[in-house]
Write a structure and sequence with these properties.
Rossmann fold, seven-stranded mixed sheet, 36% helix, single chain, globular, alpha/beta
Length: 231
């Protein structure tokens, strides 16, 4: 999986790696062109960025988790104690799928207008009264959407073994109903909304609003790397 890297200019501070996953028709370069990296640099945050080319084929072939782990995140663990994911649209689902499989490796996730499932699946959850009341029933082995929603149903923000989740979405976004279901599982201070739809201007506003919440200032909550004793 190819990636664009932009290290923070600061030295001496504890470094954080933020891996950015784009949406279906977006490219890693869009995070730079749309000012996402600039917003980090304006705030002087010690956050190194890796914008990955997690394109649609990885999802269709059900390889996005393996490739993200093998090519990007497993090597990063040699250098970074603190790793965050940022996912937009389908990249939001990719971020959550990875965190579900490797919860102790990720400190936090920032989701912007995440794709969480088909309209039919989201409608089923809504009819049941939300994720907390939803009864997923038997889930097929390859039903990644319902399996992910079942994981989110059990998500608890105060569980230190799970990554923190921050969510932002436009009030006119086509995925807003799904985001509202997830918002009900999160602390109020971890959710921001803005007028707008499923587009970069809205996501840019949400990104800056989430940065204003200072998510990277939280106490680390991931498993420490095991020290290897020299023989």
């Amino acid at each position: 999986m190819d990636a664009l890297y932009d290290p923070a200019p600061q030295s001496g501070a504890e470094r954080i790696l933020l891996v950015m996953l784009p949406g279906v028709r977006d490219r890693p370069e869009d995070f730079i062109q749309q000012g996402f990296v600039r917003a980090l640099r304006e705030r002087g945050l010690p956050v190194d960025v890796a914008a990955v080319d997690a394109h649609m084929d990885y999802y269709l072939e059900r390889k996005v988790i393996d490739r993200l782990h093998t090519d990007v995140l497993a090597p990063a663990r040699e250098k970074y104690q603190r790793i965050w994911l940022l996912g937009i649209s389908l990249g939001g689902m990719g971020s959550l799928l990875y965190a579900r499989e490797h919860p102790g490796r990720i400190e936090g996730i920032i989701l912007l207008a995440p794709y969480l499932g088909t309209r039919g699946t989201i409608a089923d959850v809504t009819r049941d009264g939300g994720l907390a009341r939803w009864r997923p029933g038997s889930i097929g082995e390859e039903d990644d959407e319902r399996r992910l929603l079942a994981w989110l149903k059990e998500y608890r923000a105060d569980d230190p073994s799970l990554p923190a989740i921050y969510l932002g979405y436009g009030t006119s976004d086509r995925f807003a109903p799904a985001s509202a279901l997830l918002a009900a599982q999160l602390p109020g201070g971890h959710v921001v909304t803005a007028e707008g739809g499923h587009d970069w201007p809205t996501w840019s506003t949400l990104w800056r609003d989430i940065l204003d919440l200072q998510p990277f200032q939280m106490s680390p909550r991931v498993e420490p790397r095991k020290k290897v004793n020299a023989s």
